[in-house]
Design brief:
It is built from 14 helices and 19 strands. By secondary structure, it is α+β, with helices and mostly antiparallel strands. The protein folds into 2 domains: 169 residues, Creatine Amidinohydrolase, Chain A, domain 1, CATH 3.40.350.10; 252 residues, Alpha-Beta Complex (Creatine Amidinohydrolase). It has a 6-stranded mixed sheet, sandwiched between helices. Helix 1 crosses helix 2. The model has no long low-confidence stretch (mean pLDDT 95).
Length: 433
């Protein structure tokens, strides 16, 4: 791993919190993600299952974590199965976890090889009355590919049809929304690396560069500072591309007078950062660009103050909508008389700001969450208001990551340049010197 393993106490705490929510006489089984085939005999880079990592810190394919807090067999309350390594695997694939290494990372004492799992797990399942399975329950997730957890669940249900089955994800959603200090530190490290990459971009950009050249500067800084890479596909969108919400082609030229919208974030220890900034290709905002930019920045500064315990997300999004609406009237993009008569279900501001303002951030860039729970201390949210004016080739989205506390929201990205004057100053520093 490029990152330093997080404190084992984090995973011990997470398992304790999870098992407290389990029903009596239950066993919970968590599988690592698959190695996904790319072509021929090659695979895409491995990314660990967030639930398994959250409970163990183990960052290796072909890993299974089993939790059985009420197990009557002594010493089998927590068990891990990992891939057996040998000289051949070490030569061709590199070092895998030894049992001692897996024990040190996870804090789980009982470690077995994966080829020993069938008989051991069979005995444990027969001692349990209920089985918790870990299926992807993100409400926007769609996939035609069966995951390792799905295949495992199907096999379990065929072999043990008399057991009762329960879902791990509702428990994980509740727990993972609230970040421990160790997790906040990991997110902060990802943010630190992301901020350094943005400063590098400010020194690099000039008229005529290609979007993918900017992307190259970002990944250079990520890898140099020990990040795994991008936490999600980066958006480097110049000119009219800045109005395409999920633009990831990153292959156009950045022309003089264009704005460049950049949405990117480093991944460190599997935790994500999520940053959006907009800069002028030539280092100087036009009067109109600056007018829209400052409007969005005002919304961001006001919106992040609304991320306080007890607020419901629907209420929060409606209030941000009102802030954007007011700015759009000031920019001459909406008529206040038409706004007064608008449909509550179809507010007019949605023409220029069509996405949500915030999502949970953690082991996933769109982290596990229950959108109907109130905001609570310990949650980490993005805050990303925007205004898109396609006819003017102006797309402004500004995004920082915010930690909710009982004392008020903490902007984890406050050190990353965002004021228009500072951005212009940094972009022109080399020219002025």
């Amino acid at each position: 791993m490029r990152y330093e393993p997080l404190d084992t106490e984090l995973y011990k705490l997470n398992r304790k919190r999870f098992t407290r929510k389990m029903m009596p006489d239950s066993i919970a089984i968590f599988n690592s993600n698959d190695l996904m085939p790319r072509s021929g005999d090659t695979f895409y880079p491995f990314r660990q299952n967030a639930g398994l990592f959250y409970l163990s810190g183990l960052d290796q394919a072909e890993t299974v974590v089993v939790l059985f807090p009420d197990c009557i067999k002594d010493g089998f309350h927590e068990v891990v199965f990992i891939k057996r390594t040998n000289e051949y695997i070490a030569t061709w694939e590199g070092q895998k976890y030894t049992k001692e290494e897996a024990r040190k990372v996870s804090g789980i004492e009982r470690i077995y090889w994966l080829d020993e799992m069938e008989s051991i797990l069979h005995e444990l399942v027969l001692l349990a009355k209920r089985i918790y399975v870990n299926l992807n329950e993100h409400d926007r997730f769609k996939s035609g590919i069966n995951s390792r957890d799905q295949r495992s669940t199907q096999q379990l249900m065929e072999r043990y049809p008399a057991h009762k089955y329960h879902r791990s994800q509702p428990i994980l959603k509740k727990l993972m929304m609230i970040k421990s200090p160790w997790e906040v530190d990991a997110i902060q490290e990802a943010i630190q690396i992301t901020g350094q990459a943005f400063r590098r971009v400010l020194e690099f950009v000039k008229s005529g560069v290609k979007e993918y050249e900017i992307e190259a500067e970002i990944i250079h800084e990520f890898i140099r500072k020990g990040a795994t890479g991008h936490a999600y596909d980066p958006i480097i969108a110049a000119g009219e591309n800045s109005c395409v919400l999920h633009y990831i082609d990153n292959n156009k030229v950045c022309h003089d007078g264009d704005l460049i919208l950049m949405d990117f974030g480093a991944e460190y220890a599997n935790y994500a950062a999520d940053l959006t900034r907009v800069i002028p290709t030539n280092g100087q905002f036009s009067a109109r660009q600056r007018q829209v930019y400052d409007a969005v920045l005002r919304v961001l500064n006001a919106s992040k103050q609304l991320l306080v315990p007890g607020t419901m997300m629907d209420e929060y999004h409606r209030e941000v909508g009102r802030l954007v609406e007011s700015e759009l009237i000031g920019l001459g993009l909406l008529d206040k008389h038409k706004v007064a008569k608008q449909s509550a279900e179809r507010p007019l501001y949605k023409q220029f700001f069509m996405h949500g303002t915030s999502h949970h951030l953690g082991l996933n860039v769109h982290d596990l969450s229950n959108r109907y729970d109130p905001i609570q201390a310990g949650m980490v949210f993005t805050c990303e208001p925007a205004i898109y004016i396609r006819e003017e080739r102006i797309g402004i989205r500004l995004e920082n990551d915010i930690l909710v506390t009982d004392e008020g929201p903490i902007d984890l990205m406050k050190h990353v340049p965002i004021e228009a004057d500072e951005i212009e100053e940094l972009m022109n520093a080399g020219v002025l010197n």
